[in-house]
Design brief:
Elements (H helix, E strand, L loop, with lengths): L1 H40 L4 H33 L11 H27 L7 H7 L1 H16 L2
The protein binds protoporphyrin IX containing FE.
Protoporphyrin IX containing FE binds next to helix 1, helix 2, helix 3 and helix 5.
C-alpha cells in the first residue's frame, strides 16, 4: 500500500493542485456575484432569479466537488510517509489555513441560501471586503507548503 502511494505521489499531488485551482476559482468568484447581487440586483425579479441560479450552480457543480476533491487528495498526501513532518511549523499553518478556507466556503454557502430565501443583510462593500479573505488564506497556505518554514 505504501509503495503504491509513493508511486502515486506526483499524480495525487497533480490532482490535488487541479482541485485547488477549481475550488479557488469559485471562492474568488462567488463573493463577486454577491457584490453585484447586493448592489445592483436586489431580492426579487428575473435578474434575482438568474443570479440565484448562477450562485447555486457555481457552488453545487464546481465548488462543493472541488473542495471535497482537494480534501481527499490532500489527506492522501498527508498519509504518504515522509511528506509531512509535524515537528515543523508549516503543516500547522497550512492546516489552520485550509480549515479557515473551509469555514469561509461554509459561510458563502450560508449567504447563498439567504439570497435564495430573499434575505441579505450585508452590503456590497462588506462582500468586497470578505472577497479578500481567500486571497490572504491562499498566501498563507502556499507559503506554508512551498517554503516549508
Ligand atoms: C483541504 C485540505 C488540504 C490538505 C489536507 C492538503 C495537504 C497537502 C499536502 C500534504 C501536500 C504535499 C506537500 C508536499 O508534497 O511537500 C500538499 C501540496 C500542495 N497543496 Fe495542499 N492541502 C489542502 C488544501 C490546499 C489548498 C486550499 C491549497 C491552496 C490554496 C493547497 C495548495 C497546495 C499546493 C500548491 C501544493 C504543492 C506544493 C509543492 O509541491 O511544492 N492545498 N497539500
Amino acid at each position: 500500500m505504501t509503495d503504491l502511494l509513493f508511486t502515486a505521489y506526483p499524480w495525487i499531488k497533480a490532482l490535488h493542485i487541479m482541485a485547488v485551482i477549481a475550488w479557488m476559482a469559485g471562492l474568488f468568484y462567488l463573493p463577486r456575484l454577491f457584490v453585484y447581487h447586493a448592489e445592483q440586483v436586489g431580492l426579487d425579479g428575473t435578474t434575482h432569479a438568474l443570479f440565484q441560479t448562477m450562485e447555486m450552480k457555481l457552488l453545487r457543480v464546481i465548488m462543493n466537488p472541488a473542495m471535497i476533491a482537494t480534501w481527499i487528495f490532500g489527506i492522501l498526501l498527508v498519509g504518504i510517509p515522509g511528506v509531512v513532518d509535524w515537528s515543523l511549523v508549516w503543516p500547522w499553518t497550512k492546516a489552520a489555513g485550509v480549515i479557515a478556507m473551509t469555514a469561509f466556503h461554509m459561510w458563502l454557502a450560508g449567504r447563498r441560501r439567504g439570497f435564495a430565501r430573499g434575505e441579505n443583510s450585508l452590503t456590497g462593500r462588506q462582500y468586497r471586503m470578505m472577497n479578500e479573505v481567500p486571497t490572504l488564506l491562499m498566501v498563507l497556505i502556499v507559503l506554508s507548503v512551498v517554503v516549508k518554514f
